[in-house]
Amino acid sequence: MTPSSNTARLKEFLLSPFATYIAFSGLSFFLVLGLTTLFVEIVDLGENLGFLIPLVIVFFLNFLACRYFIYRNPHDSIVGQFIRFSISAIGFRVAEYLTYSLLVTYFGLWYFGVMIVVLPTSFVVKYLYFKVIVFRIKRDRPAVAPAAADEEAVPLASGADEIR
Prior knowledge:
Shape: globular
Order of helices and strands: HHHHH
Distance between the termini: 36 Å
Number of domains: 2
Largest sheet: none
Helix content: over 70%
């Protein structure tokens, strides 16, 4: 494998929907931390409300990120997508909690080890579920448009050709 093919593969991954999902998830995490700190320490909303408001803000931002940047399906009904997204997000949180509780309480497993397994597993399953069920993407679109041998590849402007 040549360095240029490694670079091309890295570039393809970095432009992929899954990499975008990872990036937005990290951004959401830090946004919740920052906004919570702002609302608790500076605005003085209290710890509970100061955490709740950022969670709500990030929930809506995550939906928009999924719709327009990760799965790139602005053509389906926004209301239908939002309802599926909301129900699914709640369902995933409940499933994470129940799985965690079952493994810790009934099987006596170490809570931290359970989190290390449950959360990343849910993260990947959620990505696939949102892709297929919520945003109805049949398959990943190429990260970049095919280019002539002497031209630089450019990102696709729209993935509408692959969206149901």
